[in-house]
Specification:
With 327 residues, the protein is of the alpha/beta class. The chain has one domain: Rossmann fold (3-Layer(aba) Sandwich), CATH 3.40.50.970. It has twelve helices and seven strands. Helix 2 crosses helix 3. It is globular. Bound molecules: thiamine diphosphate (TPP) and magnesium ion. Magnesium ion binds next to strand 4. Magnesium ion (MG) binds next to strand 4.
């Protein structure tokens, strides 16, 4: 058994479920991409295909009481935190059975029951919210930690710096988890930031900064576990920078002129988080071709049921137009 698998000490069943969760995220997004092309989903969406290991790795070490705050690229975070793909699909299709009764859509999905405090269309908007949620945990002695997911693009926003500073001086149980996928829309991180690693910024706030291979599921789990333990034992926040890559364009209208097809091919070929973890489990005799096939069959059924549920669900009725709206 590889040292990494040994050191994380997860049961084989849990490891297989983690692989399944990454497969579910990818399949969910491949399906919503198709539904979008068929005109069944409106607006836009941001796909996290290629980044599945960050969402699943982080959430694998959280309890149901721990919270996450997601981003505009949030489907993976929601699924990894335990949200159900039926109601997520319904939300994306604008149906009354969706998590936000069809009124939120891709960028505003939340489910407080599983500790998913919501996706957020405002770049860096989740960091102050996560800081606030962690302040609640501390003041009321509730024992939960909060993870704020955000992209590299968020780290040049004021809200990033204010949140890290406040969380540090107040010693809050929050983890700042940066998914550095090298681009914020068409802007390369190299043009936007004059330091090599975003994790370096932790030094300005007197907190630990960790760099992790964001496509290595168990490395992500390990580094997050350490940060969670630190947060829950009263030692305050950690900044984690996960190096990763989004396979698709920024949103649904992106010709990807700011990067090369070779670069994309290289990430797909050598750093596919699902293929890497599948191979790792095979090598460690935790997974066989047969059990993998079972996961694929289960996946197909789960996605088929989700689409059926969403397509057959009713749209919200006109009389609900002003309900659950705060402005
Ligand atoms: C405050 C704010 N500024 C600009 C935008 C437009 N915008 C949406 S996503 C995005 C890029 C975000 O990049 P990053 O944080 O790296 O996340 P990624 O899309 O790479 O996951 C921008 C500029 C926005 N939604 N909010
Ligand atoms: Mg980015």
């Amino acid at each position: 058994m590889s040292n990494l698998v040994k050191s994380i000490n997860f049961a084989p069943e849990k490891l297989k479920e983690m692989l399944y969760d990454m497969m579910l995220i990818r399949s969910f997004e491949e399906h919503v991409e198709k539904l979008y092309q068929q005109g069944k989903i409106h607006g836009t969406m941001h796909l996290c295909i290629g980044q599945e290991a960050t969402a699943v790795g982080v959430c694998s070490v959280l309890t149901n009481d721990d919270k996450i705050i997601s981003t505009h690229r949030g489907h993976g975070h929601c699924i990894a935190k335990g949200m159900n793909v039926d109601r997520m699909m319904a939300e994306l299709l604008g149906k009354a059975t969706g998590y936000c009764k069809g009124k939120g859509g891709s960028m505003h999905i939340a489910d407080l029951d599983v500790g998913s405090l919501g996706a957020n269309g405002i770049v860096a908007g989740g960091l102050p919210l996560a800081t606030g949620a962690s302040l609640t945990s501390k003041m009321k002695d509730l024992g939960y930690a909060v993870v704020a997911f955000f992209g590299d693009g968020s780290t040049n926003e004021g809200a990033f710096h204010e949140s890290l500073n406040l969380a540090s001086v107040w010693n809050l149980p929050v983890i700042f988890f940066c998914e550095n996928n090298l681009y914020g829309m068409s802007g390369s991180i190299k043009e936007m930031t004059n330091i090599k690693d975003i994790a370096e910024r932790s030094a300005s706030y007197g907190i630990p900064g960790e760099i992790v291979d964001g496509n290595n599921l168990l490395e992500v789990a390990k580094v997050t576990k350490k940060a969670i333990e630190r947060a829950k034992s009263g030692h305050g926040p950690t900044l984690i920078e996960a190096k990763t890559y989004r396979w698709r364009g920024h949103s649904k209208s992106d010709a990807r002129k700011y990067r090369t097809r070779e670069e994309e091919k290289e990430w797909r070929k050598t750093k596919d988080p699902i293929a890497l973890f599948k191979n790792q489990l095979m090598e460690d005799h935790i997974l066989t071709e047969e059990t993998f096939k079972e996961l694929e069959e289960r996946l197909e059924k789960e996605m088929e049921a989700a689409i059926k549920f969403a397509v057959n669900s009713p749209a919200p009725t006109e009389d609900t137009l002003e309900i659950d709206i705060f402005a």
